[in-house]
Amino acid sequence: MSTTVPPRFAAGDPVRVGDRPVVGHCRAPRFLRGRPGTVEQIVGSFRNPEQLAYHKPGLPEKVLYRVRFDQRELWDAYPGPPGDEIMADIFENWLETRE
Amino acid sequence: MSDHNHDDHAPADDDGNTVTEFEILERALRELLIEKGVITAAEVNAKIDDIDSRNPAVGAAIVAKAWTEPDFRMRLLDNPRAAVGELGIDPGDLAELVVIENTPEVHNVVVCTLCSCYPRMILGIPPAWYKSSPYRSRVVADPRGVLAEFGTELPGDVTVRVHDSTADLRYLIVPMRPAGTEGMSAEELAELVTRDSMIGVTPARDPA
Amino acid sequence: MTDPERKTNPRVGGDGRAVHDMGGLAGGPIDRSEHANSLHEKRVDALLFLLVETKRRIFRVDALRRTIEDYSQSEYDGLGYYDRWAQAIRNLLVEQEVLTAEEIDARMAEVRKRLEGEGVTVVERGT
After folding, report:
1. Among residues B115, B132, B137, B197, which one is catalytic?
2. Whether residue B115 lies in the annotated active site
3. Which domain holds residue B46?
4. Which is catalytic among the residues B116, B165, B185, B197?
5. For residue A87, which of C124, B164, B100, C92 has the smallest C-alpha distance?
6. How many folded domains does chain A comprise?
7. Has residue C23 been placed in a domain?
C-alpha cells in the first residue's frame, strides 16, 4: 500500500515503541510501549485515530507499520520457545529508531 | 409518516417479558433518530440482515476455495478485497482485510487486546470469549497456554505468532488443510473450517 | 459544535495502564460458552454501523472506542459489552449535538411507560 506522506522507516528497520504518558486515545498497547521490535512492512498511511477519536480530521495522515516483536523481549519469563512472536500495527508517531 | 411505535416494522422480539435499561435506551435512540431523519427503520432492518449474512460459513467457503484452487489462493493472499469480491462479499470501507496462512512452521492467532477488532465483514459478530478480558489479556503473554485451553497443542519447533489488531487491519487466518482430505469437494471441506480455526485458536477439524 | 474535552491527565491505572488496555494482565480462565446474539444486541450493532458509515459518519469508530476508554474501571468491568456500546452511542450523539440528553431521557421515560403498560418488566442491568 502506498503512503501520502514519506515513511520514516522501512521494512527491516529496528525500532522501539515510544514510552511516554498517554493523553487521550492511543492504539499502542501498554505491553508494547518501550519495547524493541522490527518493522515487518509499511502498511500505508491513514488518518490519525488519536485525532479521529475527538471528531478532528486526523490529517496529515500518519504512516502505519506492521511491527514484529520477539516474545522474550516483551515478558520477563515468556512461557514458550524462542522464535514466538507478536505482530502489531503501530503508527509512526509511536515508533523511534533503535540502534 | 412515522409514529412513536416502530416495533411493528421491526423484527419480533426475542423475549417480550423483560427489558433492561439499555434496551429502553436503544429503542429511545432508534426512535428519535428515525423521527429526525438521521436513519430509517428500513435501514436498521437492512443492516441487521447484513450483520446476519456475515458469519463463519462465509469464511469457511473462502478457505475451502483457497485450499482447492491454487490460483484463487494466490489472489486471496495478494488482494483479499478483490478475491472475496469474487464470492460476492463486500468488505465495506471501515477496515482492510488481511489473510494469513498457517503453515507447518508458523501458527498464527488473532486478538484485539484494546477492544474487539475482528474480521466482521467476513465472519460476522465475534464470540463473547474473543471480546473477554481473559482472552485479550492472556493470549499475548501466554498464547500456547491459551491455545491449550482450546485443546490445541503445538510442538516447540512451530512458531506461534500472535497478531494484535491495533489499527484498521482485520486478520483472517487460513488454517492448514487437514490430512486425509484429498478428493473432498470445496463444500465438504468448508464443513471442516470452524470459526475458531479462522481466529487461530484451533486447527481446522479433521475429516470424520 | 462543542469540542469534547480531551483528557489532559495521563491515563492512570496500575502502571499507567488505561482501563481497556489489558494485554499481559493476569486474566483467569476463558469462558467459552456460546450464545447467539440477541435481537437487542444486533440492534445496537446495526445502530453503531449506521452512525459510523461513510455516508453519515456522525462519529467515527475511534470516537466510540475513546468514549468507552474513558469509563471508570468499575463501569468498564461492570457493563456488558453491548451496554458499553449503547451508553457510548448515547454520549456521542449528545456530544455531536444530534440529540440532547433531555430528549433522550424523556423518550426513555415514554418507552418505559409504554412497555410497562404492555406488561413488560424493566430489570436493572443487562449483560
Report:
1. B115
2. yes
3. 21-52
4. B116
5. B164
6. 1
7. no
* Contact at CB, B114 and A27, closer than 8 angstroms: yes
Question: d(Cα C1, Cα B201) in Å, to the nearest integer?
Answer: 45
- Domain assignment present for residue C24? The answer is no
Domain assignment of residue C18, yes or no: no
Any CB–CB contact under 8 A between B101 and chain C? no
Sequence-ordered list of residues with C-beta below 8 angstroms from that of B25, at least 6 positions apart, any chain: C86, C87, C90, C104, C108
On whether both B167 and B193 belong to a single domain, the answer is yes
- Cβ under 8 Å to C: A residues 43-82: 49-50, 52-55, 74-75
Q: Tell whether C26 is covered by a domain.
A: no
* Residue numbers of B between 83 and 122 with CB closer than 8 Å to A: 113-114
- Return the pLDDT at A23: 82
Q: Could you tell me if A79 lies within 8 Å of chain B, comparing CB atoms? A: yes
B118 lies in the same domain as B31: no
Of C23, C54, C103, the CB nearest to B93: C54
C-alpha dihedral, B116 to B122 to B124 to B129, nearest 10° = -40
Round to whole Å and give the CA distance between B63 and B60.
5
Least reliable range by pLDDT among B5-9, C7-11, C62-66: B5-9
Q: Rounded to an integer, what is the distance from CA B46 to the centroid of its chain?
A: 19
Contact residues, chain C, for A34 at CB < 8 Å:
none
Q: Is the ipTM of this complex over 0.85?
A: yes
pLDDT digits (tens, 9 = 90+) for B49-99: 999 999 999 999 999 999 999 999 999 999 999 999 999 999 998 899 999
Q: Which CATH number fits the domain that encloses residue C73?
A: 1.10.472.20
For the question of residue B116 being annotated catalytic, the response is yes
Structural domain span for residue A51: 1-70+90-94
